[in-house]
Amino acid sequence: MIEQNLENLRELYTKLPTNSEGIINEETIKISIVRNFFLMQGAEESWFDYEPFPDKSKEIKDRVDIAVKFNGIDSLEKTLYIEVKKGSKDLSSNFLTSKACKQLVRYIHSANLEWGILTDGNCYMLFNDSIKGSLEQKEVLRFYLFNPLNKSAKYRNESNLKYFDLKCLFRFQTTNYFKYLSEFKAYFKNENKTENSLKQYESTIYNFLDYTADKEKSFSLGYIDPNKFKQYLLDDISSKITNKSKKIPDTETTIKNKFAHISSFCDMLENKRDISVNPFRKFKSKGFKKEFISEDINIETDNEPKELLKESEIESILNSYNNTRESIRNKLIFLLFLYLGLDIQEIKLLKVNDIDLNKQAIHLANRTIPLHPSIFNLLKRYIEDRNSKKIKSEYLICRYYGNHYYHFEDSNFNKIISVKFNTLDIPDKRKKS
């Protein structure tokens, strides 16, 4: 039913009138798309208040586009502000600027509200003003009417939708779980942790909070405890086995890492005095495996020998790159992984100036790596190819997006390495997740 409603909304969006530049005006977006989106999310027509003053004293002369009052009750705790911006059928266009975000947050702050949404009819950005942090850190969740291209955003899009439901916002308050996740991201960055580490922590915490909200149907930080986390791990492993997922069951190391992620989340909650004590702390001792990982969790050990790539498999992967548009680049990435032992972060941040063609070596922060003639020749060809294309980026391996060059992301490397590896005729247990 929900998917059909979304499909109807998508179809309606594509038929909206535009001006000569392909722009859909705000009023059309507001009435035709946004209003219907929130009716689909549990609102009733009588709950909408169009263009009220965000500040009762009217010191702010602007009006917010929509105030949705849950159950029609005029209450600060049950009101959601929605600010609508123009849209475009070219979904790559972005009118949800930093200035627009500031405008929305200013409105909800002036009205002493907690929740607000900024949207262009396709992208819905949920903000919470109680989060102490920068404007960016006040954003809690996003939902896209048309699925985003970003793999991570696409994966979460369906899950995120349910937390825009007014019952999840105001009655069951399960959306609050993700307010605390946004606070954790701000806390994590203040600890000067790396962006890549944050993604790993965020993935674990998001999945567990989503699981908890689905199981408990209500919000309480008391639900974040070791027993429920253990049940989450059991259900997750069971789901992978039942669905014959290509993702291998969690190893002991993976479970320890996930445990550490949730424990860090609870450390923040304790530091902020949202909970009295981190319930995971007692498992940080040497008794972790005995007390937390019991016979209930059937994990794979990390001690199983890893089968190395065979020469024929290496040759097969290299040959497969001949049919790709960036064959030289793709072969180079594969060989940098395979023979030099560089990890994703090192290759991602590798700069052209780190390459010494005269000495046939790569200079990193803490070491110099000599290059085998075959890798050196391929690297030389790649740099010549870069120069002929007039690529202007300090990063050796880069991508072009939105008129700018950026370094590769983890997902880009995954497509080149893991996806190709998985096309080989090999057992599932050797395939990369």
From TrEMBL:
GO terms for molecular function: DNA binding. Keywords: DNA recombination, DNA-binding. This is Tyrosine recombinase XerC. The gene is xerC_15. InterPro entries: DNA_brk_join_enz (IPR011010), Integrase-like_cat_sf (IPR013762), Integrase_catalytic (IPR002104), Integrase_recombinase_N (IPR010998), Tyrosine_recombinase_XerCD (IPR050090). Residues 303-433 form the Tyr recombinase domain. Belongs to the 'phage' integrase family. GO terms for biological process: DNA integration; DNA recombination.
